[in-house]
Design a protein that fits this description.
Helix content: over 70%
Distance between the termini: 81 Å
Strand content: 5-15%
Transmembrane segments: 180-200, 221-242, 262-282, 303-322, 328-351
Structural class: alpha/beta
Organism: Saliphagus infecundisoli
Number of strands: 5
Protein name: DUF373 family protein
Number of helices: 13
Radius of gyration: 38 Å
Strand order of the largest sheet: 2-3-1-4-5
Largest sheet: 5 strands, mixed
InterPro entries: DUF373
Keywords: Membrane, Transmembrane, Transmembrane helix
Length: 365
């Protein structure tokens, strides 16, 4: 048996005529079509119902076993409407008094109603799909539905509409710029905005910013010390950069134009203390979080000592280049930095190995 299914996904039939769905049988479907046409002659679902009756008459005249029914969804659309159609198809199939295998011919009025095809196919094999549209509006509803789906997708809106909007703004903004005798500045700024947007989309900078913001939010609510340490470290780095630039200016003022090595040494000499403080702050914050999470290992404690050792060496070398330190001071600082790194490494390695051996002995006992 062939079952002709007239699909009305948004339930125009039930809402406008009061008919109880599903509507099963030729006479009932024709009566529903007439009622809907009387209530709203412009509704495209009228064509679907009459097309179902027309196909039924053609196949029945050829002696084929055929039945026609109208099934509807609801105004909510999407998943809820598809489920409603699926339930009504089950009702129609249960009402058929036949021992034959049932297949379906689905009749719709456009692409939107055809979104329910997978739901129907899961219940009955589909022999074909026939879309009924008014000849004067061929493909108009499909174009409308496609545009509606595109505009409803946030990803597509951001990818297509924003660049188009910026391009359309170039001409009116150029007119505004011409009034103030700045057309080049306006056009250049608009083009720069478009370029920055395309680059950010290409590099997925928006997703990375969202991920960083989400990580910061989780750290804030999880009580992680690292977040505070990073904020303090950023402030220290900024102060270090400012102090380093001041040192470069002082050297240039006292000795004239300083060459690149001397300027670099002056910048390091002025900034190294602040940078070292930032490094110690972040390492201590990380160590605190690892301890709270019970993941702390002894070798993690080397980090602040390494930062201090590196800072001592860089401070001494930069001071020596600026003639602010003697050779003996340089040698002492280099030795002290090396010894500090070695001693911290050995001390924490020994402590970790001793504690590990103690734990194995307790387990063995």
């Amino acid at each position: 048996m062939l079952l002709i299914l007239c699909v009305d996904l948004d339930d125009d039939l039930g809402r406008k005529t009061g008919f109880s769905t599903p509507v099963i049988g030729r006479e009932a479907v024709e009566e529903a079509a007439v009622a809907l046409a009387t209530e709203d002659p412009e509704d495209s679902d009228v064509n679907v119902l009459f097309q179902g009756v027309h196909v039924y008459d053609d196949l029945a005249s050829e002696g084929e076993s055929v039945e026609v029914a109208a099934v509807t969804g609801n105004e909510e659309g999407d998943v809820a409407a598809n489920r409603e159609v699926g339930d009504e198809v089950d009702t129609v199939l249960a009402s058929l008094q036949t021992g034959e295998d049932v297949t379906a011919l689905v009749i719709t009025d456009g692409a939107q109603d055809e979104s329910v095809l997978p739901v129907i196919r899961s219940r009955v094999p589909i022999d074909g799909v026939r879309r009924v549209v008014v000849r004067q509006a061929q493909n108009l509803e499909s174009i409308y539905y496609t545009m509606k789906q595109v505009l409803a997708d946030p990803e597509t809106r951001g990818t297509i509409l924003i660049p188009m909007g910026i391009l359309l703004l170039i001409y009116p903004l150029a007119l505004v710029g011409a009034v103030f005798s700045l057309p080049g500045l306006v056009i250049g700024s608009t083009a720069a905005l478009l370029g920055l947007y395309l680059i950010s989309r290409g590099l997925a900078l928006g997703d990375r910013i969202d991920e960083a913001a989400e990580g910061a939010r989780r750290s804030l609510y999880a009580g992680r010390m690292t977040l505070i340490a990073y904020v303090v470290a950023v402030a220290l780095l900024i102060l270090g950069g400012v102090n380093g630039m001041n040192a470069v200016s002082d050297v240039g003022a006292s000795a004239g134009a300083a060459d690149a090595p001397v300027a670099l040494a002056a910048f390091v000499y002025g900034a190294v203390q602040w940078v070292a403080a930032a490094g110690v702050t972040t390492s201590l914050g990380q160590i605190t979080d690892e301890y709270i999470a019970d993941r702390l290992e002894w070798r993690y404690l080397n980090a602040p000592f390494y930062v201090i050792a590196i800072a001592v060496v860089l401070h001494a070398v930069s001071a020596y280049f600026l003639d602010l330190a003697s050779t003996s001071y340089l040698a002492t600082a280099l030795t002290a930095g090396t010894v500090l790194g070695i001693v911290s490494t050995l001390a924490f390695a020994v402590a970790e190995s001793r504690l590990s051996e103690g734990g194995r002995r307790v387990e063995g006992a």
